[in-house]
Specification:
Helix content: over 70%
Number of strands: 0
Shape: elongated
Radius of gyration: 15 Å
Low-confidence stretches: none
Strand content: under 5%
Length: about 50
């Protein structure tokens, strides 16, 4: 997912202006980090149940 975002972000973000670009970039990073943190937490919970 992180590799996909890194490759595709330039084609999307190059069309946006400064403030919008920063907002989309920040939101993208927050979403990726949230998904990874959720997966880690879910792994810890599942590990305790198995």
């Amino acid at each position: 997912m992180l590799a996909y975002w890194t490759v595709t972000r330039n084609s999307v973000l190059n069309r946006l202006r400064g403030a919008t670009w920063a907002t989309v970039m920040t939101l993208g990073f927050v979403v990726i980090i949230s998904i990874q943190a959720g997966a880690y937490w879910l792994g810890l919970v599942a590990g305790g149940l198995i």
